[in-house]
User: Which sequence fits this backbone?
């Protein structure tokens, strides 16, 4: 059997979030902010989810924050991710980070062992391609 | 059935775009259309308690659309009735409003021409019992309908062409239609065959775009000002004939017309926005809604003038045939055209007397019956 390895699921970038993902590729965490009402939101939306405003801009975030919640994913849906977690020493954490700008950002968490992860742990954004790809995803790491 | 206490209070349309390569997303069109409709109505985002979403290209469940737009709702619907979705969504919203569940709902349709993985959106019937036999899309299915009508009643393409010509004339008077160059019946007859007898000028112009309108209780509508449009009657029929469909040239409009015209007689209709995926579909509606006898549609087409200055204006903005068909928002387009006329905002295409309008929707081609969903609605400038 010589089947190609399953590929890691990547975002299907659309106009609404292209800036965000371009930022991630460039190592910047960009957060959408509404010019009309001044409020930020995350994840990127087609309009401000507070006021429906169309005038969104992208504001660089510090990338610093604390772990709000996390989950150690043991049975991922995607075959490529499942193959990854079934290999030893490669935990996949799904994490929600409250960044210093006050928003909750969902991402991966890396550079840590399961027993070391704690809520409230300070983290910083990193930008790393998942195995077998060159497309970077936000991935927080402990600081 | 008669409808009371429900109004249309605002509409919004994005530009319709023939995109090559780069498309905007359905989400972006959706947000723009909703924003425009609310601004037109004079309502705030927080006033909206109901949302109906329609799209072919975007398959998201409707609660996710609420999340993406940031709406907190008491009523949400994915209106999945094809080109009938605009009117069907209004009917569902009107029921919720009359029941007191909500005061304000936005019905939005948005689509782009780029759809991924056609098999993922096709049904068993099409895959196994149409595709293997040389399916050419809706053109081929309506080719069957039109050929049957021509054979049975002697309907001519010259008569059908009068609809395409009139709609194009109406479109030429607007700013927004994609096709505005006037055509003649000869141009229509000589246009390229697509799925004989369906020819090029029988076919809509697919495009990208979003269309939305706001449905509100009369109480809210009165507070908003003096331009509410009243929904005074509406009716629907799905899978006309049930398990034993009638002849392919009879549609559900014959089944719903008594309900539709129970409260408002046919004779009071000043103009109509009829779902025009094809001229033959308009002819079938005129017959099945009782404007003429079955089989007499062609004579009716020869006897009337459907331009905005004619005796029976139809598709006053050009219909989908000349305006463009923004996917499943095509059904929403007809609702907006009726609102525009009833509010006197149609500019050079304004019909002189616009008190009462008929709007129809057709959704989903059946593989046994001809069209699955038929819906009609009568709008009035005042409560009746």
Assistant:
């Amino acid at each position: 059997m010589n089947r190609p390895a399953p590929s890691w699921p990547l975002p299907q970038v659309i106009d609404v979030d292209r800036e965000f993902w371009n930022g991630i590729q460039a190592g910047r965490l960009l957060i959408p902010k509404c010019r009309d009402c001044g409020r930020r939101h995350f994840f990127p939306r087609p309009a401000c989810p507070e006021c429906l405003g169309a005038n969104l801009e992208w504001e660089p975030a510090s990338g610093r924050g604390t772990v709000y919640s996390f989950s150690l994913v043991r049975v991922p849906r995607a075959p490529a991710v499942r193959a990854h977690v079934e290999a030893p020493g490669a935990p996949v954490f799904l994490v929600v980070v409250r960044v210093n700008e006050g928003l909750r950002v969902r991402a991966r968490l890396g550079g840590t062992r399961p027993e070391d992860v704690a809520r409230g742990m300070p983290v910083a954004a990193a930008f790393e391609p998942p195995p077998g790809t060159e497309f970077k995803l936000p991935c927080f790491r402990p600081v | 059935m008669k409808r009371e206490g429900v109004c249309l209070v605002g509409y919004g349309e994005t530009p319709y775009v023939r995109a090559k390569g780069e498309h905007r997303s359905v989400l972006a069109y959706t947000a723009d259309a909703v924003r425009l409709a609310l601004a037109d109505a004079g309502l705030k985002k927080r006033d909206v308690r109901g949302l109906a979403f329609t799209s072919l290209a975007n398959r998201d469940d409707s609660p996710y659309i609420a999340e993406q737009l940031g709406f907190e709702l008491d009523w949400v619907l994915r209106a999945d009735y094809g080109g009938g979705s605009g009117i069907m969504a209004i009917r569902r919203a009107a029921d919720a409003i009359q029941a007191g569940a909500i005061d304000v709902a936005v019905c939005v349709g948005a689509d782009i021409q780029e759809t991924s993985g056609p098999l993922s959106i096709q049904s068993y019937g099409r895959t196994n019992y149409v595709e293997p036999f040389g399916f050419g899309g809706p053109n081929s299915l309506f080719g069957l309908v039109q050929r049957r009508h021509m054979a049975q009643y002697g309907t001519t393409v010259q008569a059908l062409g009068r609809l395409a010509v009139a709609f194009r004339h109406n479109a030429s008077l607007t700013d927004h239609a994609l096709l505005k160059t006037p055509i003649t019946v000869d141009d229509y007859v000589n246009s390229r065959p697509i799925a004989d007898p369906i020819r090029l000028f029988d076919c809509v112009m697919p495009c990208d775009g979003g269309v939305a309108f706001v449905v509100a209780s009369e109480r809210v509508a009165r507070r908003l000002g003096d331009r509410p449009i009243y929904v005074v009657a509406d009716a629907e029929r799905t899978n006309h004939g049930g398990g034993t469909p009638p002849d392919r040239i009879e549609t559900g409009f014959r089944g719903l017309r008594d309900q539709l015209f129970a409260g408002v007689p046919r004779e009071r209709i000043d103009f109509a926005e009829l779902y025009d995926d094809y001229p033959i579909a308009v002819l079938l509606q005129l017959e099945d809604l009782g404007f003429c006898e079955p089989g007499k549609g062609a004579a009716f087409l020869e006897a009337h003038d459907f331009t905005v200055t004619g005796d029976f204006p139809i598709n006053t903005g050009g219909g989908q045939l000349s305006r463009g068909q923004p996917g499943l928002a095509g059904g929403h387009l007809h609702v907006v055209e009726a609102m525009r006329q009833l509010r006197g905002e149609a500019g050079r295409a304004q019909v002189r007397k616009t008190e009462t309008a008929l709007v129809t929707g057709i959704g989903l081609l059946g593989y046994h019956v001809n069209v699955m969903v038929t819906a009609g609605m009568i709008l009035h400038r005042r409560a009746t």
